[in-house]
Amino acid sequence: MDQNRYTQIALARAADIRAIVISFTLAHATLSVVLGFAGDGLQDSGIRLALAAWIILGSLWSVAFMDDAIQDLNMAFRDMEGFMETSMGKRLEKMPVTVFRVANVVIVALIVIAEMMAIY
């Protein structure tokens, strides 16, 4: 495959990662404001269910999207001719991508747990 194609894939997936991080952060920051100022509105079980569904399903979607983008970005770099001989490529060889994938799940899970505790 053309090396420019790998570069374009890597750039696109990096943009995807930035987009999901910004979207996730804004959504959960907004949710924190809602939880902080909702007052009696959170006593309605329907509202709590809707918020819980959003928190869980939105977070699952974010984790899956981010994990896929991390894997694609990693593979695009590895497929680029000569990249693994560069300093960044050598660092990538030493870097366990699995750690970032697991950290992504753990961080999101902790956020979800905290939000669910705030709701219930």
Describe this structure in words.
- The chain is mainly α and 120 residues long.
- It has one domain (3-119).
- It has four helices and no strands.
- Helix 1 packs antiparallel against helix 2 (45-79) and helix 2 runs antiparallel to helix 4.
- It is elongated.
The rough form would be described as elongated
Structural class: mainly alpha
Order of helices and strands: HHHH
How many helices in DSSP terms?
4
Q: Percent of residues in beta strands? A: under 5%
Task: Walk me through the topology.
Elements lengths: L2 H35 L7 H35 L7 H8 L2 H23 L1
Helix pairs in contact: 1-2, 2-4
Quick overview:
The protein has 120 residues and is mostly helical. It is built from four helices and no strands.
List keywords for this structure.
84% helix; mainly alpha; 4 helices; 120 residues
